Amino acid sequence: xxxxxxxxIVGAGAVGITFAYTLQLSGLAREILLxxxxxxxxxxxVDDLNHGLFFVPPVEIRMGDYEDCRDARIIVIAAGxxxxxxxxxxxxxxxxxxxxxxxxxxxxxxxxxxxFLVVTNPVDVLTYVALKSSGxxxxxVIGSGTVLDSARFRFLLSRQCxxxxxxVHAYVLGEHGDSEVAVWSMIHMxxxxxxxxxxxxxxxxxxxxxxxxxxxxxxxAYHIIEAKGATYYAVxxxxxxxxxxxxxDEKSILTVSSLMEGEYGMGEVCLxxxxxxxxxxxxxxxxxxxxxxxxxxxxNSARVLKxxxxxxxx
Length: 314
Ligand code: NAD
What we know:
Helices cover 41% and strands 18% of the residues. It is an alpha/beta fold. The protein has two domains: 3-143, NAD(P)-binding Rossmann-like Domain (Rossmann fold), CATH 3.40.50.720; 147-309, Lactate dehydrogenase/glycoside hydrolase, family 4, C-terminal (L-2-Hydroxyisocaproate Dehydrogenase, Chain A, domain 2). It has a six-stranded parallel sheet. Strands 7-10-11 form a three-stranded antiparallel sheet. A hairpin with a 2-residue loop joins strand 10 and strand 11. Helix 1 packs across helix 8. The longest helix has 22 residues, at 207-228. Nicotinamide-adenine-dinucleotide (NAD) binds next to helix 1 and helix 3.
């Protein structure tokens, strides 16, 4: 039996520990278990988090090992090598695939009921590695996918259009990486199509502006890594949103990464489509109508990911 409010985080680096902190503030978890190879640093992080318990809802935060994941409801994998400046996400593939495979195999010895959430990059390929190494059903091994990219897209559109990001509905689909697809045909602002918003705006989105904005979304991580070495705040909030949807059985539509089983003719690859996320993890993968160019770009994204998958031993 899993504890409905226990979250295990494997890999307590910048992303793992920032996620633990957002989770601590949220009150969502009853227990947060942290696992990392670097036990000395982790002990310091756990002390630092615990010293804030007076100020937040009750939660037990501790360090542990794989067997302590026995009753975790969600297992987050954020362990691995960091993206270096200029390095593409796919370059990280071989370094991180082995780490991910070992972690999943070690944990599934003790727990085969949890939902696994992969965050380590390249996240879509590693979600596939985790799924295949775990033997778990498709819905219970998911990646953070383009939840972060979609939030970046919404933020930039909100700035461009002068509208609250929470009223902007826009998705990035496909790979979390260079081949990702910003889906302009689906954008609306609380039901008002983008074209109608733009008609009334002196800041109309021209073709060039759209292209610049799409590139800005795609290149966000590179710029942040160049500036400060890593990205961790927004991704942690994206992870919290996914975990919240699972723990509360929200049936939220989020662009998590999961195994394709015939969507748009795709298969044997994990990538992001709008997905209903609830207690079962990725409960339903949706295939909305796309403009022909967007559909082609999505299929290209699947091809790019499949080429990476073919380069690793599963
Ligand atoms: P980091 O180097 O700060 O942390 C990685 C941690 O993993 C380190 O603490 C390291 O000791 C630990 N680790 C390595 N091998 C391990 C193992 N076998 N078992 C347990 N722990 C192990 O890196 P970071 O900035 O926290 O990023 C982590 C990952 O998240 C990277 O792959 C990064 O690219 C990715 N990331 C993904 C997204 C996304 O949207 N999917 C966003 C940001 C970062």
